[in-house]
Amino acid sequence: MQTFRVDDMTCGHCASTITKAVRAVDGGAKVEVDLQQHLVHIDATEADSRELTDAIAEAGYSPVPVHALSTEGTPTKKPGGCCGCCG
Question: Does 85 have pLDDT greater than 70?
Fold first, then answer.
């Protein structure tokens, strides 16, 4: 299981977009989203961490592997809504 912090994921539309992006590179992946904590948990079947990171980033978000947070700090949130669906 891999976990990413995605601070610019703020609503259900964001969660759906990220889930679709992950499944585009790994059709069998199990994706769990925790909107309040801004976390995406992925149990990948095919894709590696780099592929998952790239897929989330290409969908317009800023994923940070959770293990990187302990040394790099918390990423800065984007101002306002993330995807135009929320304000």
Answer: no
